[in-house]
Amino acid sequence: VQLQASGGGLVEAGGSLRLSCAASGYIFGNYPMGWFRQAPGKEREFVTTIGLTNSTTYYTDSVKGRFTISRDNGKNTVFLQMNSLRPEDTAVYYCARRRFGRDYASHGAYDYWGQGTQVTVSS
After folding, report:
1. In which band, very low, low, confident or very high, does the pLDDT at 41 lie, cut at 50, 70 and 90?
2. d(CA 113, CA 105)
3. Model confidence at 74, in pLDDT bands (50, 70, 90)?
4. What is the torsional sign of CA 70, 72, 78, 84?
5. At residue 59, what are phi and psi to the nearest 5 degrees?
6. Contact status, residue 4 vs residue 113, Cβ threshold 8 Å
7. 3-class secondary structure for 53-113?
8. Contact 74, 61 (CB under 8 A)
9. 95 and 3 in contact (C-beta within 8 Å)?
């Protein structure tokens, strides 16, 4: 199993970025996916998760209405569209594969992680 995150970068506050996570080594459409982030000096935190299709999604409160997770099962890729970015969104963003029957906001629910992509939002 491999997860390759990309799309991070430097953006001004109010701007947008789209992260991608390309999956390989397993049947992508059979697993939910998620995004976490980790800011310097802070613990890794849950951002959002998506079920097997685009119909089931959950977000942490701080990104609701600004971030959108989606997936393309034909391309084995999950996306995170981030709009209205704020300096507090600055972090390394990680995609991860979720196991069924687990608390979707818990690290323990995810068994494979990508390498992370840096997002920096300037004020």
Report:
1. very high
2. 14
3. very high
4. negative
5. -135, 150
6. no
7. CCCCEEECHHHCCCEEEEEECCCCEEEEEECCCCHHHCEEEEEEEECCCCCCCCHHHEEEE
8. no
9. yes
